[in-house]
Amino acid sequence: MTLAPVRGTRQEHIMNGFDFTLCGARLMALGSGALWWAEHRLLCVSDLHLGKAERIARRGGTHLPPYETRDTLTRLQDALEATGARQVICLGDSFDDDASARALASEDKLWITRLMAGRTWVWIEGNHDPGPVELGGSHLAQMELGPLTFRHIAQDAATGEVSGHYHPKARLRGGSRPAFLLDQRRLILPAFGTYTGGLRSQAPVLNSLMDSKALAILTGPTALPIPMPR
Fold it and tell me: Helices 106-116 and 68-83, interaxial angle, to 10°?
């Protein structure tokens, strides 16, 4: 795991990235919560949870303002335009459930279709959205590319693994931010979706997955690496 901040470049202002190496793959954790792999022009995001407000209302919960899907898609579009990505991996739980995918407004489905146009697009299956959606692209349980394996939920003995699911967060100076968790063997992405909570890095399940030298890379205006709080 080789680490170096990106400083003094155009990328710093556009993508606010933190550069590191995982199992030989040179990657960048973006302040937005997306992962950039320049060698493959690949953008990876996890846990979009599109349609969450609709799902909560459908099940009798609080009626949240129904704008989270468009906010998430706006930020995803910004990341695609900033990086010029030609490949996209959505790392599971892209929709809050299968019904949420079917209930998307037609203009939001069209928006997703436009984002997918001209790009290789992979939907990794998550625990919220185990079935394929009718939006094109490839639908896989996991994907291997070079030294990395992309899946939704981390596996104990995995090496070169990129996953999501836990929505990790870390605290700094009294505030908590979504965060990437990184060690020698794996990377866990923060949730990219607007209406998503998070699991603090001190949680036993995250402590058990990450080694003692793990970093938390906080998202925000600048992607900031700190020792993973435990």
Answer: 10
